[in-house]
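Sample 1 of the test manifest.
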Amino acid sequence: MSGQVWVYSESEPVANEVATAAAAVAQGASAEVRMVDIGSVRPATRGSGGRLLLKGPAGHEVSPAVAAEALARAAKDLAPLAVLLGATRDGREVASRLAAKLGIGCMAEVAGLASDGQGMTGERNVFAGKVVAKVRCQFPAVATVKVGAYPKAAAQPGESQEKDVGPVSDQTKTVGREKKPAGAVDLRSAKVIVSAGRGVKKKEDLAILAELATAMRGALGCSRPLSADLGWLPEEHHIGLTGVTVKPDLYLAVGISGQLQHVAGMKDSKVVASINTDKDAPIFQASDYGIVGDLYQVIPALERALAARR
Amino acid sequence: MKIAVCVKHAVDEAELKIGPGGSPLLAGAAGKMSTFDKNAVEEGLRLKAAHQGEVVVFMVGGTESKKTLKEALAMGADRGVLVTADTVAIDALRTATMLAAAMKRSGRFDVVICSEGASDTYTGQVPPMVGELLGIPYVGYARKIEIDGKAAKIERSLEDSVESVEAAVPFATSVVSEINDPRYPTLIQIMQASKKPVEELNGEEIAPAGSRRGVEVLSMSSQPTARKHVMIDGSPDEAAAKLLDALSKEGVLK
């Protein structure tokens, strides 16, 4: 029997990205991919390879604690070579807990996954994206896969397997769930992002940036101080290491100094343009085009120029 | 209420120099308290103010990392525990194992607080691992924590939603930076911090590594994204027109 590489994510689209990463690991390790469902089979079509249903945990809502315990019980019996999860907030928790339960290594937020048959390697950003580290972990291993780093795997037929792991209790209870405003979702899929920083003098002035974003058919983002310290925009608009990671065609940084933590969230943008009064602002080092100038003059000028072209 | 807070002496990424071959010069690199750990310390102090008790700061690191522990003590933590280890060569599970072992020696804690991730490596793995190894409920990415007797109510901030979660004390958590505004220690507090007790434990003694290899770093290289760095001059109207021309040529203006 050949080894297995398991894929699990609480998010269907992310699971299908992770499936693509898992296929690369499975190829190097001559293993098979298994898409894992916990509690109940999800109706949607799933990415490459066969499926594995872990029966026992009840219901459709599976908390990180329950997912980690179900995966750990199944892994102890079925001994997969690797378990890959999505590097979402929930996914990081499941992966970490699973690795701790099994006493094995866990690679965090990796891309470029490969296997030499004995273990797997991957690449991850460290020091706020300043450096890329190549990491390796001997099988059996756990990893979380960077969200957005892989295309979604197309659905493929495959063998189905079931495993009863017994009931799993949760020490915590989720009593409510509220959707956040759509900000983060819009930013992740936006082709153009206009992003505001401390150069904006007051909250009301964000309106001119929002107008420009609308004129460019884009979305409005911000650096951390505007959401976390000033509260001018909801945290879902915060682009950076601990906020949303974006990769639009055009990223227009307005009044943003360009701290590494901010750049970490936007460095995969296709083209970056910046407007800042300080010619030495680090944002210019992370930009294709820079204008040293007052945003209160340059933004209206951009709006006029845009209007003239349409 | 006994509160444990975990902190890390992180590489100061802004100060980190890159060598000629593209490798980061980690030997002797400047360090600082991991940015978001200040929120973890602050939350510990906030809970202490509301429920009495003590705040104990735990850290795995070398002797150079003591200034981070001191900073947490200056902010108001009561005492510190330094678990000595070579942090360059260890992975998250090893760090978490040493932290959990150190906490078990210090008695049972009601609340264990970490930040969501270290500002240098940002794996976010240590907090759930510590919770798991201590065998207590864990609720990560907290943006609000309320404790009433033995019952805690925590708001978890996820990508697209906020969850309300109930847990019983003792529990472990990681906090996001929105949860509070960390205080700055006063000069007097900084001076008093040196008098607060710091216990030193040897990581290998309290939690032998055995033959486990974990995650290994094979190589590190700086790969700056290639940018054009074109500076556009002229009056605001001229600069705006030139920028739009350039963006049109790039094909990124719809």
